[in-house]
Amino acid sequence: MICSAPAPKLIKQMSIILDIQGLSTVFESKNGPVKAVDDVSITLFRGEQFGLVGESGSGKSATCRSIIQLIPSPPGKIVSGSILFEGHDLLKMSRREIRAFRGAEISMIFQDPMTSLNPVMSIGYQVAESLREHKKISRRNAREEALRLLRLVGVYDPEKRFSDYPHNFSGGMRQRVLIAMALALKPKILLADEPTTALDVTIQDQILKLIASLQKEFDISVILVSHDLGVIAQTCHRIAVMYAGQIVEVGHTIPVFNKPLHPYTQALMQSIPQGVRRTHTISAIKGAPPYLAKPPEGCRFHPRCSYVQDACRNSTYALREIENGHFTACINEGFIQR
Amino acid sequence: MKSVGSSDRILEVRGLSKSFGNKQHLLAYLRGKKRSVLNAVTDVSFWIRRGETLGLVGESGCGKSTLGKCLMRLHEPTAGRIFFQDQDILAFSKNEQQQLYTQMQMIFQDPYSSLNPRMSVFRMLAEAMKVHAICRSKKEMNNRVEELMEKVGLAPRLKHQLPYAFSGGQRQRISIARALSVNPDFIVADEPTSALDVSIQAQILNLLIQLQDEMNLTYLFISHDLSVVRYISHRIAVMYLGQIVELADADTLFSTPLHPYAKALLAAVPLPDPQSKSSTEAIAGDLPHPGDNITGCRFHSRCDAALDICAHADPDMYLPASGHAVRCFLYK
Question: In the beta sheet, which residues pair with residue A88?
Fold first, then answer.
């Protein structure tokens, strides 16, 4: 049975804003095609903060980039699936339509605030640019709106900083500017790809709190990508865990953390040295993630899994619902019912 | 302060400072302007016991790596003294310095750029042994390389492979093997796991602990990740803008942090447990630039508990009997 992660009861009355079904993205490489995103299905509700967690190379960023079709092509190509946003399939839109869509309905914040801004254009110009690009708006009104946005994201004294260049800003401030740009056109969905990974913890704390408050204020749906389980635990309502291009577990944050239903999620959580001292050895996951041009047969985690059974070596990938809104790709009943 | 001779201290640092002169424009020089100076490390003192791990934690730009490099004399300190096994290593000649590197070694952050891409594992591990004339014969060298590789969890049959053939975690194992090749007593590990995924990070941390127990190694473990530092360290020093602001036993620091910065830092870490919400208020402001002229306590501009005196005077390190040292006027 193949199914996505549909509505848990709590928010069943909430409306679905983005429905991704069976999305697959492939990159050509000299060793053959690499399936970076493999049969990914995500249902995002209005006003929800959804976390996508996994290790590097698990396909989190590729999933996000596939949604707004920023996959460099060639070598990348979205080969199958559908992405429904308010009844429109994004994958069937023309380039022109998707360009108008990007930023206005769905916008994205990237990982590295140091390189995502144009170094030779002033901050104010860059924030106002997206407004002028998408709307018929006078230069003066664009400036007013840009100042309002900069104030909103906590840039101190924006009139003075409007004509400053990115090099005058610290990493945290640049990320605030990027958030202002992403929010300029009042999008309904914000994709945040590791928005705090390049920042220090005290600054990360500021940015995460800013995103959460803006999300509430404007009722935006957020997909937050992170490799940091702490960030995900503290900010997201629901999470999906990715491994080797596939979603292996989806559910509400608290049940997933309390009782993970996939051995990978459990192992990932046990390998964080949180609040423990060296007297209790943390359990590392043996081996390394697979190379996606030649993924293992069956469950992709089976060579590293400590609960592996014979059936795991040739099972087909499918998510199934175990508890209300809590899905796993694991077929080991013994592990799930533990 | 105790005499230098207290034998359980393998390393003692006193009043260490390192400043970098900024590049100056010729015109500014001709106009007689003073060169601006960046104080990366200011007046840092601490010691490490033999067999212990001292964790050094702080945000980017606080001078952790500069401090580590000063200990290895990869940077020449501007002021202060470093005693290693009771010898003042800053007074060492080139030859003595060379000898010193058989006793102290460093592991670097980035396993992708810290290994020579054109040298096989064997050559990398053998190089240090050749330089320090550790092995007498080729056979002995070969045996030792294989032994080192096994010790860090690499298959000896991979010894003629080049670095590109290894993953990040395996490369960091090579770096560790290279550091161990000369049988050192003391290792500076500068963010050895921050380029790795969590599942691989756990492998490397466990390896470092296991090697420490087997070989009675002493570590200075530099990291920005508090939970990693807590896991591996016996004692922890918290750095802020070039100064150590708090130094305590790992458990004590986490249960009762004293310095307002240490408190804020601990509160800012997002806990991987959705039911225990971390801090409610984020600490305001950015780190000042270390090149700025800061008067008073370096943290006072971001501190909620700042007193009047904090803006004018820089506090000293207070060392109560408990050994929990803190650099803050609140505890004077």
Answer: A85
